[in-house]
Write a structure and sequence with these properties.
Mean pLDDT: 76
Order of helices and strands: HHHHHEEHHHHHHHHHH
Strand order of the largest sheet: 1-2
Strand content: under 5%
Largest sheet: 2 strands, antiparallel
Structural class: mainly alpha
Number of helices: 15
Helix content: over 70%
Radius of gyration: 37 Å
Low-confidence stretches: none
Distance between the termini: 114 Å
Shape: flat
Length: 323
């Protein structure tokens, strides 16, 4: 009878899972409880893109800097350095972002097939994304917590559980020739639902194993079209895309302004003299030697020995004077 109760209850849960579990609320609530989760997910899935965005400034900046150099040679205006620096900084970050997410679909250009760097890593990202969600967010513990506490799903679960428990209790009571009042059965069901979170923990490892959520998510993400997969990470960049591009322009303009100051003599850098360098090196060496533990201990021992010798000598002199 217990087996039939559990079997019927689980089957009914499966048939009504849409009303019992709000996946969106479950995920959002987990992210709000621990806000570092989103950053960790973004770092795991977009680590190579962030690294590319950081390092691409060197290569794109160098190539665009060559163009800037040619312009500076042809246009003898000190402001060409500042303006050129701003344009180079802006174009560098813009190109880097385009390189990550575009083209969305594989595009053949001559002998080459071009596609955004992130999109070419679809299988790799799907593996990281599914592992993170299965192990940190959509776990059995988190899903049952959402089912039992989410205001949009908790009433439906309580109703379903109460229905099956009352049915089970009625069958047991009939076998014992005892028929409790319906109100008593409802109170018992409500109390059972209240106590359920304290006893459901034994199921989590079994549920996680049988759900195979990580594998299901990975396969689903691998089957996504390029357009669908592009929306996994790109929206996070889109929020700050303009900021990144403008930041590159501002930093490039500032660097160009410094170059302009050096070129026009507004900014002067005074190189240290060899004598100053030598003096600083000697002072640094003495400080390092003073911090050396061995020499500090040896110096302390030497000073103690010296004091002992002085005391012995005074004692000897006093003894001679008394004699």
């Amino acid at each position: 009878m217990n087996h039939n109760f559990l079997k019927d209850f689980v089957v009914d849960m499966q048939n009504n899972i849409g009303s019992l579990l709000n996946v969106k609320n479950c995920v959002v609530n987990q992210m709000l409880v621990d806000r570092t989760m989103l950053g960790e997910l973004f770092r795991k899935c977009g680590e190579k893109e962030l690294e590319f965005l950081t390092n691409s400034g060197l290569w794109f900046g160098f190539m665009l800097g060559l163009i800037q150099m040619a312009v500076a040679l042809l246009w003898e205006n000190p402001w060409s350095l500042s303006i050129g620096g701003g344009i180079v900084g802006l174009a560098t970050n813009w190109l880097a972002l385009k390189w990550i997410f575009e083209p969305v679909n594989p595009t053949k250009v001559g002998p080459f097939i071009l596609q955004g760097q992130f999109l070419r890593r679809q299988k790799e990202v799907a593996k990281e994304f599914s592992a993170f969600f299965a192990n940190n967010i959509l776990t059995s513990e988190n899903m049952f917590h959402s089912i039992l506490t989410d205001p949009t799903t908790a009433p439906a679960f309580q109703e379903l559980f109460s229905k099956h428990l009352i049915k089970f209790g009625t069958a047991v009571s009939a076998g014992l020739s005892v028929m409790p009042e319906p109100e008593v059965m409802k109170m018992a069901a409500a109390r059972a639902v209240e106590k359920l979170p304290n006893h459901i923990g034994v199921l989590h490892s079994y549920v996680d194993d049988k759900l195979r959520l990580q594998e299901t998510l990975r396969i689903s993400m691998e089957k996504m079209s390029s357009v669908q997969f592009e929306r996994v990470l790109h929206p996070i960049f889109e929020e700050d895309e303009l900021t990144l591009i403008l930041a590159g322009a501002v930093l490039g303009f500032a660097a160009g302004l410094v170059q302009q100051g050096l070129e026009t003599g507004t900014i002067k850098l005074q190189a240290p003299r060899p004598k100053q360098i030598w003096s600083h090196a000697v002072k640094t060496r003495k400080r390092i030697q003073a911090l050396c533990p061995t020499k500090t201990i040896c110096g302390s021992v030497s000073r103690v020995c010296s004091k002992l010798r002085n005391l012995r000598q005074r004692k000897s002199d006093n003894d001679t004077g008394d004699g």
